[in-house]
Design brief:
The structure holds two protein chains of two kinds. Chain A is an alpha/beta fold. Chain A is 50% helix and 17% strand. Chain A is built from ten helices and nine strands. In chain B, helix 2 packs across helix 4. Chain B starts with a helix and ends with a helix. Chain B has one domain. By secondary structure, chain B is mainly α. Helix content of chain B is 72%, strand content 0%. The chains are: A alpha/beta, B mainly alpha. Chains A and B meet through helix 3, helix 5, helix 6 and helix 7 of A and helix 1, helix 2 and helix 3 of B.
């Protein structure tokens, strides 16, 4: 299964190109297109109402992720576990404290990451999953999340191991405990926190491997304008730092008028990356010919992306 | 039940042994508590304005953190007299 992320500045045409690409792919393969952008317009592009999930054709499934709903579901699940553990604390209005968590930064990115993870791990019946992502800032944040989390998990695991090591020493010196004394957990297997840290780490490492792997591709969409150029350069730098596979650049919305800016944008981008670049332009007969496709987009885009 | 002199001596020896063992590891116990405090503080730091890991990590681990939270709260209460606490743990004075 191949995974593709369409990224870029807001308004450059990510969603349209992702949709066009998914539709083209669906002529040969089974494709799932997932919109992660809170301002969903997948349904508008395909001219249907998606409302979560909708089959557009035999081989193309459309999905719009509701991040607010996902965050709520995630928090509800966690709060239930918390309430079970801290039942006796309910008297202190713990519920009020937990509802504050929904304003906590990072929960939406986490919900987004969980949604990507879920799609990758459960939607095995597809040959391709195409993700239409939100604008650059949020995309970089959630793509960086697995790596940041693994770094934190490593540090926390170190502290936890040190605690268990010391508890083991205490247990050894004190000898067998008499009734009523607190028994310290000195075995890694008995420590719930360490076990949870291990399971979270293995989960994020596997997700990271998928995101950095050969089957994952990131497509950067940009326009012939300087704002889009600056943001694209930032995104390229960010992706490099995260070691995420940028495999195709799409120069969208080019026209005969964009000549000089187009050349400048392409030159500056080619200075920082050697990834193949494709130009996408409006067809001149778009308005008149009803049977023509919206964009002039190469049929063999898949080969360009996956030849490496 | 009446204890024989031998049993009495044995119990005294046991208690002395236990006291010595407790004294020996008192500092390590304090160290463990401090480590648990640091662990909780790192994980839940965002609630007191410290840079912290992604908040969902805290949410994921919170159900297992009962003891750490108790220590964190105890440390927060005693924070105005930490020297006394440290001197106590080190047996100074």
């Amino acid at each position: 299964m191949k995974i593709l992320f369409f990224t870029g500045k807001g308004g450059v045409g990510k969603s349209t190109l992702a949709a066009a690409y998914a539709w083209q792919l669906s002529q040969k393969y089974r494709v799932l297109i997932v919109s992660l952008d809170p301002a969903h317009n997948l349904g508008d592009i395909f001219g249907v109402e998606v409302r979560g999930e909708r089959r557009f054709s035999q081989t193309l499934l459309l999905k719009e992720v509701d991040l607010k709903k996902l965050s709520k579901a995630y928090l509800k699940r966690e709060i239930r576990v918390l309430s079970d553990t801290y039942k006796y604390l309910q008297i202190l209005n713990l519920d009020t404290y937990f509802t504050v968590l929904k304003y906590s930064p990072g929960i939406e990115e986490y919900a987004m990451l969980t949604s990507i993870e879920e799609s990758i791990k459960t939607e095995n019946s597809f040959d391709y999953i195409v993700f239409d992502t939100p604008p650059t800032g949020l995309t970089l944040r959630f793509l960086a999340l697995p790596q940041i989390t693994v770094t934190w998990l490593d540090r926390l695991t170190q502290i936890r191991k040190k605690i268990i090591e010391k508890c083991y020493t205490i247990q050894n010196i004190k000898g067998p405990q008499s009734a009523g004394e607190t028994i310290l957990s000195y075995d890694e297997k008995d420590d719930g926190i360490l076990q949870k840290l291990y399971s979270l780490k293995s989960n994020y490492q596997s997700l990271n491997r998928i995101l950095q792997g050969n089957d994952c591709s990131i497509v950067l969409v940009f326009n012939p304008d300087l704002l889009s150029l600056k943001e694209s350069l930032r995104l390229i730098k960010g992706l490099k730092e995260l070691k995420l596979p940028l495999r195709l650049l799409l120069h969208n919305k080019i026209s005969p008028e964009s000549g000089e800016t187009m050349a400048r944008v392409e030159k500056e981008i080619s200075n920082v990356t050697s990834v193949p670049l494709e130009r996408v332009s409006f067809l001149s007969d778009f308005q008149t010919n009803k049977d023509s496709v919206l964009y002039h987009i190469k049929e063999d885009l898949t080969n360009i992306i996956h030849q490496g | 039940m009446k204890l024989s002199v031998f049993d009495l001596l044995r119990n005294i020896c046991k208690d002395i042994d236990k006291t010595h063992r407790s004294n020996v590891c008192a500092l390590t116990v304090t160290e463990v508590e401090e480590l648990q405090n640091i662990f909780a503080l790192l994980l839940l730091g965002s609630f007191v304005g410290l840079p912290s890991p992604p908040s969902f990590l805290a949410v994921e681990l919170l159900p297992y953190m009962q003891k750490e939270l108790e220590i964190l709260s105890k440390r927060a209460q005693n924070a105005n007299d930490m020297f006394a606490e440290m001197f106590g743990a080190l047996g100074v004075g």
